[in-house]
Amino acid sequence: MALPWPVLAAAQSVQAAAVTATAPRAMVLDLPTNARRTAAQETDLGSYKVPISRYEQGRIQSVWAEGEVHRQAWQIQAPGLTTLQILAPLRTQLADAGFDTIFECEARDCGGFDFRYATDVLPEPDMHVDLGDFRFISAHRMGSDRPEYITLLVSRSAGRGFVQMIRVGPHIPGDTVLTASTKSPMQGPPQATPVATPQDAAVRPAQEGQTPTLTARLEAQGRAVLEDLDFTPGSATLGQGPFPTLASLASYLKTHPDRSVTLVGHTDAEGSLAANIALSKNRAGAVRQRLADLGVPSGQITADGVGYLSPLTSNLTAEGRSRNRRVEAILDTVQ
């Protein structure tokens, strides 16, 4: 439910801020020297629902913001860094630039899976979100004639950090809304040299020229598509198999009882959203049951579905629709 700006501030405060506000100025957030921008989208005049609450009772409360919209995704080489270590200096920079925090949350407090899929997120692989390890913050400051909003979404994989920034507000010339700095890279805690175990063989990275195994992708990227599944068209009936991806995933989970995954069903864009969400949830549930039949404890697997809300590619072609119909395993364990 979108809430109007007056809900967040008294009318007299907004009026006073508008009188004293200066001309819009670029918001430059310093990132480490090893940061790499992976995606950028700009709209001269657009809108964005700024989340201001956790996901509960089927929705996120939000502020409807209009103006120039910038969306960017960045990746940082950050082995050993936590999401809080990535977010904290950015949060401080926002405060120093005159932004007031409206809302801040951590994965489970945000609403986990539901929050992530109810808010705007740039697509994989440009922006990766670990459902069990992400942080979100929304902030605002008053411009000359309207408020300016920035949201930050931070997550990580085994060796990389991911930062998404969405800014909406008055026009700012140039491409300096978010930039990498020339400061020293972020330093994480010292990393111990790992000791190889027989179980590690299942997740060992592929050699050059080889395709990474499913479990290697799961460990490195936090997610993996179960590419060989076969469903009856239009139904959640899973074929008899055998399916090597399920055998591999089952083996991984049984040898790593401290790990858990969320199975997420996806569809193409044919049909209504409600019908596709129901179908995607049922297909993820069928995969969960098959993994349980293979001996995986039920406590290590959850299942959900998002219909056509998170496509891998365009639904305009038959090939694209085929790729978008899938079930993904998302590693939701936080070490």
TrEMBL record:
* Highest taxon, organism lineage: Bacteria
As given in the record, the signal peptide range reads: 1-16
InterPro entries (UniProt xref): Bact_OuterMem_StrucFunc (IPR050330), OmpA-like (IPR006665), OmpA-like_sf (IPR036737)
GO CC annotation: what is one? membrane
Keyword Zinc tagged: no
Which keywords annotate this record? Membrane, Signal
Give start and end of each OmpA-like domain. Answer: 218-335
Q: What is this protein called?
A: OmpA-like domain-containing protein
- Species assigned in the record: Pacificitalea manganoxidans
